[in-house]
Amino acid sequence: MRQARNIPKNDKMIIECIDENTFRTSGRGSIFTLTRRGEGWRVVVENASTRAWRTLGNAQDFGSLVEVERRYKTLRGISPLIAAQFNSMQ
After folding, report:
1. How far is CA 78 from the centre of its chain?
2. Distances (CA, A) of 49 to 46, 52, 55, 74
3. What are the backbone dihedrals phi and psi of residue 79, each rounded to the nearest 5 degrees, phi first?
4. 68: exposed, middle or buried (C-beta count within 10 Å: 0-12, 13-18, 19+)?
5. Which of 29, 54, 59, 63 is spaced 20 to 30 Å from 48 by Cα?
6. Burial letters for 1-40: b for 16+ Cβ neighbours within 10 Å, e otherwise?
7. pLDDT digits over 22-63, tens only?
8. What is the Cα 70 distance to its own chain's centre?
9. Which residues face 61 on adjacent strands?
10. What is the DSSP secondary structure assignment for residue 9, as one 8-state letter?
């Protein structure tokens, strides 16, 4: 398994590349895990409530990264970063 790499998003945030299909970042008190699933994406959000109750994070599926960015302010701007990441892997 490859070691996770950090992708700088801006001066304040880091997006961690877990593997080819999984990315993680945190912001606004939550941890966001973005995973490619077939033709779409799944976002799992862990916040204070899920950590306190020791439950799985809230998962939501999206058809595109544009939809993800529209729904989660913390993940805005991630699509060009992921595109650049995939281009550098090839």
Report:
1. 8
2. 8, 5, 8, 18
3. -60, -45
4. buried
5. 63
6. eeeeeebebeeeeebebbeeeebbbeeeebbbbbbbeeee
7. 999 988 888 999 999 999 999 999 888 887 777 777 899 999
8. 13
9. 42
10. -
Residue 69: C-alpha distances to residues 43, 73, 81, 88 (Å): 11, 6, 12, 22
Q: What is the pTM of this model?
A: 0.77
Quickly list DSSP for 37-64.
ETTEEEEEEE-HHHHHTT-PPEEEEESS
The C-alpha angle 20, 79, 68, rounded to 5 degrees, equals 100
Q: How many residues does the chain have?
A: 90
* DSSP helix/strand/coil, 83: helix
List the structure tokens of 37. 């699933």
Residue type, 40: G
- Structural tokens at position 52: 């306190």
Tokens for 89, please give them: 């892997």
